[in-house]
Design a protein that fits this description.
Blueprint (H helix, E strand, L loop, with lengths): L1 H5 L4 E3 L6 E3 H4 L4 E8 L3 E9 L5 H14 L4 E5 L7 E9 L6 H25 L16
Length: 141
């Protein structure tokens, strides 16, 4: 937590999970949650992005390219019966051998920047679940 504060990374802890929520990413359109989980031997940054169901097939076909374009991130689709499809964006840090503050901050900043760029690209491609403007029905003559 001190390293996040020192790196000027906005965050908070909610009462429902043991993750540290990353406020900057959660404010982006389409992102449901973005969290840092710190365990004994590792740290995991995960971001859940809500995907339009009609874009799921195109996204699945595009996953290989997305994983190649963002090599520091692991990108995969999560589909649960009762929810809309989600794209999970993750980065895993090995910490058992130790990690220094400047390394942690740099990795977090790079992960957040790549996630932000990915989310922007997903929006540009029309994959994100966003409020779409209401279309007026066409008049029939």
């Amino acid at each position: 937590m001190r390293w996040l504060v020192a790196g000027h990374i906005d965050h908070y802890i909610c009462e429902n999970c043991h993750g540290i929520h990353l406020a900057e990413l959660q404010e982006l359109d389409g992102i449901l949650e973005s969290r840092l989980f710190v365990e004994h031997e590792d740290a995991i940054v995960t971001t859940e992005v809500e995907i339009r169901p009609t874009a799921l097939l195109m996204l699945m076909a595009d996953l290989g390219r997305l994983n190649m374009n963002y090599p520091s991130l692991k990108i995969f689709v999560d589909i649960v019966d009762d929810n809309l499809p989600r794209l999970i964006v993750a980065n895993y840090l090995h910490t058992q051998a130790g990690i220094e503050q400047h390394q942690f901050q740099w990795i977090m900043q790079q992960t957040m920047m790549a996630t932000h760029q990915l989310t922007q690209e997903l929006g540009d491609l029309g994959y994100l679940m966003q409020d779409e403007p209401q279309k007026m029905p066409a008049a029939v003559h």
